[in-house]
Write a structure and sequence with these properties.
Two copies of one chain form a homodimer. By secondary structure, chain A is of the alpha/beta class. Chain A has ten helices and 14 strands. In chain A, helix 4 runs antiparallel to helix 8 and helix 5 packs across helix 9.
Chain lengths: 296, 296
């Protein structure tokens, strides 16, 4: 394989990595210029502002929300089931005014039996970068977390959960935030929330209120309420996402350290066989897909 | 019974009614001065600003969030089960500087088997004002809706659902609001949301995302998404609130016209025996409790 520039340009952040022929990261830059912060479609200019000094001959491989309608180039979804080869075939190529070539890996659409249409962008590439670990079931925690199931190196199905966004809404904008003191992780309170949701997964609109009532009656200290709420929501997600699935399957969590640790803790409480994946597996996924496309 | 002034002073609104000896409303005033808008505990002054011209010899009967820690006088909760006589015994009396007497009816605490502590303030008085209808199971839709079960004229148990607040959060502050056009009620979309939640009540964090994905794929028009989201949340609440209850029990919805109609529509889809109650039953409840206390 050859060197390339890996671009992970999401809704709220910009991340670029210069990746050597051996897969090692030689250079990287991160900025808060998520795609929603880019005005008037000035993606190329924003991009050059951050990595203008990097080698212009290197191919750029991009995935994630940058391929959405709000992104640089909107790429039509590929359909589940899909393997890395299919994503390689569907790459969209763009020549920039500065003489670079950007290769966009599109996301996936799934004809979901539960909600008819489900979509993701970026997580497919992470999964293809993590398949070599032997895991088959993946969770990508985040604003909208995704539960992705693979079989024979193909992504068969997935489901979106609005857990991260819900947590932000309830902790910052609802009455539940008023009694909270601080955001320090409290494992006991987190576990209590997880178990509450495991015991009654359909009761979340009711259980959420306990974040207030337990605080009002000093059954939980104010400093524990943030973690308790997190446990309620993550526990509810896990209970539902694993309801009809093989509990012995090799699960892997792909996410940054703090939130991934919470998911792993809760998934172990559910008796799942789960490991922490490499948070940079998206780069490896881009490398595999771009290689199959003959780009690197 | 004698005449009195009924005070319904909640978090976001102030309502007062002059009620005749026969129970008829002779005078009323409504303002946006909810208790959170009252600065430095100036409840009496705010109160006189609105009803200063009303007869000072009339007893005032108050219930709702005005008896909470954030209200005029904090009243300790009564414990479930409780009847009107017990609330009458627990009334807190206050003499104002202007020579009025305010009688505060406190709220209820319930040692909930599901969330340990549950509370309400104001809805207990509505229920006691509606018991003569023969209904035994009551729903009070709102920011936090309450499902209240009675037996032999006592409130036995209740459960809070954060449905209204969740709807406001998701429709106004989440990604789900971005595709929405307008807030007009669309009964078909509402029903679709209700049925989605009835079919998979534990899947709400997942189903919520369909408000976006169905819009993205034009499976629902943008004008229908607001009602669809409402159906998802209300359906989820109803599915859980009635999970272990008698579906043939006489249910009654106590709420203002629009939201009550949505609840009744969804509860009928669930096969429940439900009727619309009088939205002013809180006044009748105050009248009954104050009469038992010998105040009127």
């Amino acid at each position: 394989m050859k060197s390339f520039i890996s671009l992970d340009w999401g809704t709220t952040s910009f991340r670029a990595y210069e990746v050597g022929a051996d897969g090692a990261i030689k250079n990287q830059t991160t900025a808060a210029d998520g795609i929603t912060a880019v005005k008037d479609g000035a993606f190329e200019q924003t991009f050059e502002n951050h990595i203008g000094a990097w080698d212009k001959s290197l191919p750029i491989v991009a995935s994630g929300m940058i391929t959405s309608r709000q992104g640089w180039v909107e790429c039509a979804y590929a359909e589940c089931p899909a393997d890395a080869a299919e994503l390689a075939q569907k790459i969209t190529h763009l020549n920039t005014a500065t003489g670079r070539i950007v290769h966009f890996i599109t996301g996936l659409h799934y004809k979901s039996p539960s909600i008819q249409h489900d979509v993701l962008r970026g997580e497919e590439t992470q999964v293809f970068g993590a398949l070599a670990t032997g895991a088959t079931h993946f969770v990508t925690p985040g604003t909208h977390s995704k539960w992705i199931e693979t079989k024979d190196k193909r992504i068969e199905s997935f489901a979106t959960y609005m857990t991260g966004e819900s947590f932000a809404l309830y902790s910052k904008h609802s009455i539940l935030g008023r009694l909270m003191q601080g955001e320090a992780h409290d494992e006991a309170a987190f576990t209590r929330g997880v178990k509450q949701s495991f015991a009654d997964p359909a009761g979340i609109l009711h259980s959420l209120f306990s974040t207030r009532s337990l605080g009002l009656f000093n059954a939980l200290p104010a400093t524990a309420l943030y973690s308790y709420l997190s446990g309620l929501l993550i526990g509810q997600e896990i209970a539902h996402a694993t309801r009809a699935h093989d509990h012995d399957a090799p699960y892997m969590v792909l996410g940054s350290a703090g939130i991934a640790a919470s998911y792993i803790s809760a998934m172990k409480l559910a008796g799942l066989n789960v490991k922490l994946g490499n948070p940079l597996c998206g780069i490896e996924g881009q490398r595999i897909i771009a290689h199959q496309a003959g780009i690197i």
